[in-house]
C-alpha cells in the first residue's frame, strides 16, 4: 500500500514538473494595430486601448511571420511597442 502511494506521488510530481516546464517554455505573441508583434510572457491588461493589442499563441507566429513587423524580444516584457518604439509600463 505504501509503495503504491509513493509511486502515485512520484508520477504526480513528474507530471506537474513536465507541465510547468511546458508552460514556462511557451510564449504568447502580442500584436498592435500597426502590425508590430513581439513575444510576451504574460497577457497584460495594462496596454493602452488606442494601440489595439491582440494576443496569439506561439504557433500563430509560424504562419504569420512574413505579414507583420517583428520587434525585438525584451528580457522584461512589461511594456509595448508603438511605431517601433518600446514603451515600458509605468512603475
What report would you give on this structure?
There is one protein chain. By secondary structure, the protein is an alpha+beta fold. The protein has a domain at 27-88. Helix content is 34%, strand content 24%. The protein is built from 2 helices and 6 strands. It has helices at residues 2-25, 58-64; strands at residues 28-31, 36-40, 54-56, 69-70, 79-82, 85-88. The strands form 2 sheets. Strands 3-1-2-4 form a 4-stranded mixed beta sheet. The protein has a two-stranded antiparallel ribbon with strand order 5-6. A hairpin with a 4-residue loop joins strand 1 and strand 2 (36-40). Mean pLDDT is 80; it is low at 9-24.
What's the count of strands? 6
Helix/strand order, N-terminal first: HEEEHEEE
| Helix fraction bin | 25-40%
Largest sheet, in brief, is: 4 strands, mixed
Number of helices: 2
Outline type? globular
